[in-house]
Design brief:
Layout lengths: L18 E4 L8 H10 L4 E5 L9 H5 L11 H10 L2 E5 L6 H10 L8 H15 L3 E8 L8 H17 L3 E8 L10 H12 L5 H17 L7 H6 L2 H6 L21 H11 L42
Parallel strand pairs: 1-4, 2-3, 4-5
């Protein structure tokens, strides 16, 4: 499937590249805060995302809840945004692994969504053809995921890591718990809002944790070891990177409504409403200010570190 279309080359960019893929689960919106966070750390993120399969919503479906956002970008637009902003989230172009597009559409209607060979070939054909230098695979395991048990999730992880390494892509996998929905929201627009809350320095603890874990792996795979992504969430750099994602010239990206009152993004919305359209995007956190905590919930550790080429351990 890789050879069925074009292969992209990001070697001309001024920064290294890293990407992430998740097998999906209920409330999985990690790509939304992760891409601008890693970009704020100095690594470009060419995130080619997909739509929902089975009971899980796709990243593109979530982002299309933002008025005016578009999934289709040309290769030239992708390169320009990666160079200027550091991250792009869009649909794979028609020329990238076109054979996969036919199989991808069939999986949802033939009951083969959970077939490990089809999952692995679909994901890795696009990611290898995409040309990223490093790749982190987030393999969900639990009642809310495609993979219900650790053994099958590890099999899938190993099936994807091997071809990535063979293609020269620094590939690691994390097995992460999807026994309960991730975060406090499930639904396209409200998941976008919750993601912005994370970028603003707040958000549910489990979403923050599962944003930082792959961020650190992506940075390590790209050879960037002197930056702490947690600091980029705290100082507002990640929110500033997110501000460059709006494809409409001269427009700030809309600030979605936040799922709980009194949250950090609620105050940012009020500040943005008072600011002229030409003013810079408001910083994520004024000096000395603390982001309000999200409503309390019991969280579990969802990830464990993974070494290069070795799937991570599932945590229960």
């Amino acid at each position: 499937m890789i050879a069925s279309g074009e292969r992209m080359d990001f070697s001309s960019l001024s920064r290294p590249t890293a990407d992430k893929h998740s097998t999906g689960g209920v409330g999985d919106k990690i790509t939304l805060p992760l891409a601008p966070l890693v970009a704020a750390c100095g690594v470009a993120v060419p995130q080619l995302s997909g739509r929902g399969l089975g009971h899980t919503g796709g990243t593109l479906d979530k982002l299309e809840s933002i008025p005016g956002w578009r999934a289709a970008l040309s290769n030239e637009e992708m390169f320009a945004q990666l160079e200027s902003v550091g991250a792009v989230i869009c649909a794979a172009g028609d020329g990238l692994a076109p054979a996969d597009k036919k199989l991808y559409a069939l999986r949802d209607v033939t009951g083969t969504v959970e077939a490990i060979p089809l999952i692995a070939s679909s994901i890795m054909s696009k990611k290898i053809a995409e040309g990223t230098g490093a790749l982190v695979l987030d393999v969900k395991v639990g009642t809310g995921a495609f993979m219900k048990d650790v053994a099958r999730a590890r099999e899938l992880a190993e099936t994807m890591v091997d071809p990535g390494k063979d293609a020269g892509v620094h590939t690691v996998a994390l097995l992460t718990d999807m026994s309960t929905p991730l975060g406090l929201t499930a639904g396209n627009a409200i998941e976008v809002a919750e993601s912005v809350e994370v970028l603003a320095g707040g958000g549910p603890a489990d979403v923050v944790e599962l944003t930082l874990a792959p961020a650190r792996e992506m940075l390590a795979g790209a050879g960037v070891t002197d930056v702490d992504p947690a600091e980029k969430l705290a100082d507002g750099s990640a929110m500033d990177a997110r501000a460059g994602h709006d494809p409409r010239p001269g427009r700030r990206p809309p600030m979605p409504r936040c799922p709980w009152p009194g949250s950090r993004t609620s105050s940012l919305r009020r500040r943005a409403a008072r600011s002229p359209a030409s003013t810079p995007w408001p910083s994520a956190r004024p000096p000395g200010a603390r982001a309000p905590a999200a409503p309390a919930r019991r969280t579990r550790c969802r990830t464990a570190p993974a070494s290069s080429g070795t799937p991570g351990r599932a945590t229960q």
